[in-house]
């Protein structure tokens, strides 16, 4: 698939992996739109990379998802790549009961429900393009159970399964379906906002994404030990 001249929407694009994707894709001559919940972070991203377009959107909200779609369809009808990147990671101890599950952001809505609904919303628009793609960002934890973050692991396993099914279903269309499978990445995911700890640089993930798209490597797996893809 071509790596330039695309119009791309990245959810959760104001920070971390999403912002690294946006920077690299703009560098390659693409029009990039990012969305996220925090307007201040979107403004920071746009100040750093003025070519990026922004839209405030909480993808865990059905209303926000529908507003996002209608806005993109009106303002950017040439959109041909959807990147489902937004993610939430929370420690949840089920020994504490239902409160542990419901006392914070919903990993199920953000990590799993949102990509499915956004895919359903955007496919008709993507089908109008000469070449299109859906890129789902899962995790190396899709196949590894971590007791501390059980719902996160489950949502990423579910997203992996959905991506495989969707790829098969869209095989006879112009839409290509990619899955990006990061290892631990140096972002604030699962920690206090803006607190970064160990992992590969987000820029390595962006390099892997571009190479995967270029080579039609539909499952872009990046290892912790050797982050360069493939």
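^ Assign residues to that structure.
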């Amino acid at each position: 698939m071509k790596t330039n001249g695309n119009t791309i929407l990245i959810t959760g694009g104001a920070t971390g992996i999403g912002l690294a994707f946006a920077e690299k894709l703009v560098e390659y001559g693409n029009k990039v739109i990012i969305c996220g919940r925090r307007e201040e972070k979107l403004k920071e991203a746009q100040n750093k990379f003025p070519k990026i377009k922004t839209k405030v959107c909480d993808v865990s909200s059905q209303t926000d998802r529908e507003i996002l779609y209608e806005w993109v369809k009106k303002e950017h009808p040439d959109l041909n790549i959807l990147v489902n990147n937004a993610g939430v990671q929370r420690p949840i101890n089920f020994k504490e009961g239902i409160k542990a599950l419901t006392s914070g952001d919903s990993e199920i809505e953000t990590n799993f429900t949102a990509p499915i609904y956004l895919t359903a919303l955007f496919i008709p628009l993507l089908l109008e393009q000469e070449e299109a793609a859906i890129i789902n960002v899962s995790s190396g934890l899709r196949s590894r159970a971590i007791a501390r973050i059980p719902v996160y692991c489950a949502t990423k396993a579910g997203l992996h399964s959905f991506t495989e099914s969707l790829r098969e279903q869209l095989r006879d269309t112009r839409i290509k379906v990619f899955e990006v499978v990061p290892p631990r990445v140096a972002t604030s995911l699962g920690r206090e906002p803006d607190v970064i700890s160990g992992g590969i640089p987000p820029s390595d993930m962006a390099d892997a994404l571009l190479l995967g798209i270029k080579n039609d490597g539909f499952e872009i797996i990046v290892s912790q030990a050797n982050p360069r893809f493939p």
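Residues 7-175 form a domain with the Rossmann fold fold (CATH 3.40.50.720).
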